[in-house]
Amino acid sequence: MMASDMMEGQYRPGAKPMTPPFSPVLLLGLALKPLRPALLQPLFDAMLRVVRRQHPDILERLEAYGDRVVCIDPIDLPFAILLEPNPAEPRLTVRRFVDADEVHATIRGPLETLIALAEGKVDGDALFFSRQLVIEGDTEVVVALRNAIDGAGIDLIADLTSALGPFANPARRLADAALEAAHSVRSGIETLRQSLIAPAVQGAASRDARIAELEAEVKALRKASRRGHA
Amino acid sequence: MTELVRPELVCPAGTPAALKSAVEAGADCVYVGFRDETNARNFPGLNFSRKELEEGIALAHDHGAKVLVAINTFPRAGRPDLWHQAVADSARLKADAVILADIGLLAHAAHHHPDLRLHLSVQAAASNPDSIRFYAERFGVKRVVLPRVLTVQEIATVNAAIAPVETEVFVFGGLCVMAEGRCALSSYATGQSPNMNGVCSPASHVRYEERAGGITSQLAGFTINKFGEGEPAGYPTLCKGRFIANGKTSYLFEEPTSLNTLAMLPELIKAGITAFKIEGRQRGRAYVAAVVQAFRQGVDAVMAGRPMPDIDLDRITEGGRQTTGAYERTWR
Amino acid sequence: MTHPAKLTLGPVLFNWRPEAFRDFYFRIADEACVDTVCVGEVVCSKRTPFLAPVLPEVIERLTSAGKEVVLSSLALIMTEREANEARQLATADAGFLVEANDISVASMLAGRPFVAGPLLNIYNEGTLAALEELGAVRTCLPAELPADILVTLAGAAKGEIEIQAFGRLPLAISARCYHARSRNLAKDGCQYVCAEDPDGMAVDTLDDEPFLAVNGTQTMSYHYLDLLHELPALRARGINRFRLWPQNVDMVAVAALYRAVLDGAVEPADAADQLAALCPRAEFSNGYVHGREGHLFVEADL
Prior knowledge:
Chain A has helices at about 25-30, 35-55, 55-60, 110-120, 125-130, 140-150, 155-165, 170-185, 190-195, 205-225, and strands at about 70-75, 80-85, 90-95, 105-110, 135. Helices cover about 50% and strands about 10% of the residues of chain A. The model of chain A is unreliable at about 1-25, about 165-170, about 180-210 and about 220-230 (pLDDT under 50). Chain C has an eight-stranded parallel β-barrel with strand order 1-2-3-4-5-6-7-11, surrounded by four helices. Chains in contact: A-B, B-C. Chain C: InterPro entries: Peptidase_U32, RNA/ubiquinone_mod_enzymes, UbiV.
């Protein structure tokens, strides 16, 4: 499936330029929907390179928590992102299935909320107080991550755009599509929510159902893995 | 009518980005801490390196704002070097003041850095004129951050008694229910305390458990609260938990709530307070920007004799609830 | 162990009825093997008027019995009335040491010998030295300090160092009264409900786990501190004075147990069993001295 397919009906060429308000987390969110994780991995690798080069303070702030794996789980997407903040060898991995045993902490919430959080546009405490964000496991590394990202005060999209030059296909194509997507959603997060996310965010019932579904899938996958099929 | 004195707005910054947000939003002062246990917000991923402080001071000074460095935990016996170094580095980097709580550290700073301006941290809980005079006369403390135990009327009385020592009071944010710096609840449950480690109810000991019907928040294995579906949640700060006492389940110490004195600003300004402090170095820059802007507008309105603007800070308050805390006697 | 170990009975922190308060101290005077006895209201100035009438006879009885009497100050001084009462205490010069539990009281006592109380923040040598320079001849250290710091400070002190060794630990003090709040009352109209709980009001978690205790504006540990096992090691490392906080139990017997362990007359393990029998409803902890969570009971040597 082509990455550009997913934005059908939303991309309107010729619209006026804007400062893209969206980080790569969002771009990936948009890009991820129809794709297998392996295809997205190069983009995450690139994002991490940008962070390492231009915002070393993020990893520096996470130094004490390098061995703790955090699962960032947008509840309205079929993927989660695993972050291993080890400053020497940080990793950001897209995963379809995540075993609770392999992560130290999970941050779970609507994509829109996670993005706003990553960009420092909303207050993480406030989000949690209002129950839009669920934190499980090791709260310390989650707090460290939140503080590190918030403290960087960065414009990841600009950085990423400039960093994508040397990229080969398909990551480049994918990133282009994602960037186009971001540019197209110019009426802001609300449009995005309406068009992509809102249907999936229907409160606890749907979330619980999805968790149950995921658990079943994980179980199946584990079984398969034990039989040597995965 | 006596002329009102314009209070300084003292704003929190846990990171350089937050410092920038605070300064741009109209802070007169920004207070920060080093990334270690020398300050009472020694939280994961937070606070300043020496280099970041140097850059932060330069940025703040460019905007005409001051930078205060909180070194407000109590140095560990036998190992005071970390704290002494923090004071020395603050002096070297030309911080506008250091905020100290420990008597021994105040004595050290007064002796070794006589030109460094000293503020007394809220963690010293100097709640009366005699205490304040003690710190002013012995160590040359110029300003005292009052503990959150006094009513506005008591503050006005204290102010009159201790001039020319300046007072600073909290106007917004997380509310300590106990006299600050005089609480060992956190170490009792977790082994880590505000006074010794710079943390209260530390994240390393916090667990949230999502169960059918809601969330349970735990601290070091103690259940601090349970929240039903849709009920606003709170961080499991010990004194904001739900407990059972006298056969009744309640927020025995305090509800998960934030101090918000916006509506009281005219009264507080009349009390002759030098500086208004916003709590929240551990909150993000979105919080800093929103709260600083709100209080900038509020203070400016009062000083200009305009009516208070109607500003809603509900969304960023803990549990969505607000209180004027100890400033009103009924709180007690 | 060149110095004989001393026992201090801390001030009664609870709101005991005046007769109970008087009778308790009379029995302590007559029977308890403690060297020093602290008296005075520490927690809430609203209670002071009830104690004032019986204090003189209590002090007289204790003094006659050969006990050293120490007058303990309030912990949190906020009003002019409270400050004035503290000033009277500090300047009375009645021949008793005053224990300062708020830094303002220490400043009022400057230049005269006094006791730096356990509710002052004394965490390091610098602060200890400053208070000793002010006149502190004895310092009771805060509850949350681990043994290595207690020992370091004992080594640095010019005067005496005392540590807390028995009873519910004072953990926090507030302007707000939680006893009143638990009855939906304001502090101003509290009806002195704290008197209903002579050992403090138990505070459980939502899982019914005992956790804290409330004593008016003070928050205490649910657990009773028990340092019987640690006494010999602490003595060997230079700590010679131990404070017992009064609980509504047979404190004469409790003091006798601590004395027996200090004298080497009873094994700590046996004493601990007897202590448990003396305090049938209590759970015990010793975590702080082991550098751990205060509520834990650590079974290890120091």
